[in-house]
Amino acid sequence: MTEPLRRELASPVGPLLAVLDDDGALVALGRARVEVHGRPRPHPTFELLASELQRYWAGEPVRFTVPVNPPGSPFQQRVWAALRQTEWGRTLTYSELAARVASNPRAVGQANGANPVAIVIPCHRVIGKDGSLVGYAGGLDMKRALLRLERCLLL
User: Fold this and answer.
1) Could you tell me the pTM of the whole model?
2) Is 152 known to be catalytic?
């Protein structure tokens, strides 16, 4: 296995780090915690991701088509697939997501929290049953910003 391709992408919520596997599928997207050195190597997946994110940041409803292949258990994969069916501008509760995958809210919450591909797999759209913004690996400030962008959160 070769070194994964990495690219830092500018965004309104701070720099994001995108990582591709050997097949060019997105395996991670999140806040950049390390600086990417060297000249970025081109890859069509990075170009597609940058284009789709640009539309997303402009407030356009986007159904991401970039290929994804996040590492995770079969259960996590089911949860993440269900998350990808959640439309732009919509939220759902952990209980609603759990019903979609025939599980319980706690297990779904753990899978949601383990999502390595932020935004494209929209775990930010999951909220508490009382409407509260609970847990988000990128921080609640980022979750709030994403939900405002999608007009799910007006404050």
Assistant:
1) 0.91
2) no
